[in-house]
Amino acid sequence: MFKTRFTEEFGIQHPIVCGGMTGVGTAELIAAVADAGALGFLSALTQPTPADLDAEIARTRSLTTRPFGVNLTILPTVQPVPYDEYRQVIIDNGVGIVETAGANPAEHVKALKDAGIKVVHKAVAVRHALAAQRMGVDAISIDGFECAGHPGEDDIPGLVLIPAVSSKVDIVTIASGGFATGAGLVAALALGADAINMGTRFVATTEAQVHDNVKDKIVANTERDTTLVFRKFRNTARVARNLVSEEIRDIEQRPDSSFDDIAHLASGARGREAVLVNGLMDDGMWWTGQSQGLIHEVRSCRDVVDSIVKEAHALINADLPKLVASAG
Q1: Can you tell me whether residue 293 is helix, strand or coil?
Q2: Among residues 210, 284, 150, which one has the least CA distance to residue 26?
Q3: Do 195 and 259 share a structural domain?
Q4: What SS3 state is found at 143?
Q5: Which of 19, 126, 198, 214 is the most exposed place for a label (fewest CB within 10 A)?
Q6: Within a domain: residue 223?
Q7: What are phi and psi of 69, to 5 degrees?
Q8: Sign (positive/negative) of CA torsion 179, 183, 185, 191?
């Protein structure tokens, strides 16, 4: 067992988090993460309506008695999203922990905190972490450059970003981006974090409700099989390297190209249908982090969490002490 500020303040057995993942963060996975002693976040916007989120929270509670959270990601969209309605569903259901991400969450943080909910905000820079702390969030999930999704535009890897944030904020920090092993957990704790967040590792589990081709591809891929898209539009995203992401990059490099030229390729609906549902790995854009180079098999959530904790304990108690010369 590890005792950190995260486990103490959030009441979670292990300092391990499965952050919100659109299209992946559904009841089966999040309940399994919770039962393994970690903290998982349902993805609110995976559910088409607030009513669907209400049902998904109930479904998760039917699968586990342990605590879990809900992710609310605030991003620009073509169709307006009723964020306040999703937020109210979270409050009405008595969810104890919410993860916010994307745009400025100030309005939501106030409402959630007024309802007695703990808030974790995902950030990609020290300045963003400090701003979130000033808003009153309870924890920062700090995304290093290795992460899947949006690592920001500063390109700072976790080895630098995690201690930079941990040394400047007074609240719980969760290290995110590149984590999949017990060694990673030990490293994060040594760098000043209170827990680790894993996305890609939890996608490659038996409980993740995605096509088996996705899980098999993560296992087969190396750390080199990701690419960065949307750099031209200052909305950088790390995704799997495939035919679609390579085509997006080629179009971006044209001097006169605009986002309209790649919108049909980058469509989230296309990616979810082609890849996550049908397993057509080159027919849509899909998200994965460099940590896939550390993932060598599909395992249950419990096996993943237990093995990480066991490996971390072995490193701290048996292996690392051997490196310290005795005073005598």
Answers
A1: helix
A2: 210
A3: no
A4: strand
A5: 126
A6: yes
A7: -125, -175
A8: negative
Domain count, the chain: 2
173 Cβ partners below 8 Å, 6+ apart?
129, 139, 140, 141, 142, 162, 165, 166, 192, 193, 194
Q: Measuring CA to CA, which residue among 145, 149, 287 is closest to residue 218? A: 287
In angstroms, the CA 33 to CA 45 distance is 19
Residue with tokens 């995110």: 176
Task: Provide the residue range defining the domain that includes 257.
Answer: 212-277
CA distances from 69 to 23, 95, 231, 239 (A): 16, 6, 31, 25
Q: Is the pLDDT of residue 327 over 60?
A: no
User: Is 235 found in the same domain as 143?
Assistant: no
Determine the Cα–Cα distance for residues 173 and 154; give it in Å rounded to an integer: 19
pLDDT digits (tens, 9 = 90+) for 68-81: 999 999 987 767 89
pLDDT digits (tens, 9 = 90+) for 108-141: 999 999 999 999 999 999 999 999 999 999 999 9
Place of tokens 């949307």: 230
Distance in angstroms (rounded) separating the CA atoms of residues 249 and 265: 11
Distance of CA 103 to the CA centre of its chain: 16
Task: Please indicate, yes or no, whether residues 202 and 231 belong to a single structural domain of this protein.
Answer: no
Tokens describing residue 260: 């309209």
Q: Give the count of beta carbons closer than 10 Å to the beta carbon of residue 134.
A: 10
Residue 286 DSSP one-character state? -
Which tokens sit at 12? 């979670």
